[in-house]
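Translate sequence into structure tokens.
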Amino acid sequence: MQYDLLSRLKNETAECHTRLENALDLMRLEWSREDYVALLEGFYGYVAPWEDAVATFLPERLRDFFEERRKASLLASDLALLSGDNDRASSVTKIEQLPAMDGIGRVFGSMYVMEGSTLGGRFIAPHVAALFGLQSGSGNAYFEAYGLRTGSMWKAFRETASANVPPEQHDEAVDAAIATFDGLHGWLGEVRTSCGATA
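Result follows.
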């Protein structure tokens, strides 16, 4: 059932979600352009290899569903615009250790974190645009992501996850979501403590 899987993901990752959100503090008012570029580089270094890993493990029938959710190219365009270097993304250091995604449950658990971030992006995109004098979709394209389609894309993700993750893999989905929050926190944040494990 949709309620069972998505409510478990929301409830059992809440601590990790809050910890990452607080560590990044993306709605802060004091923020240098250099720090913003460094953050985008950090995101690219995680998102690009993560997307490649998901594409490897996702079943063929779900490839189109995932392809329209790729966002590494948005980060690359943001970095090019902000740095004036069209190849800036190619020099970014990429994470080597990603959460295990060797089953449909783990893939969707990890995707829950990345897709869920688009909901917060609706607030972050205009915030950074105002801070750094950016035009909508230029320099903040990653956070703007789906724009007006954010709600419908999130609904489609929830429905697709519920339809494809069998109940016996719900535990794996939660584990992968926590591992993804933990991995992002360690990669992007100053504090590198673990979020913990599922109960």
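Note: The chain has one domain: 2-188.
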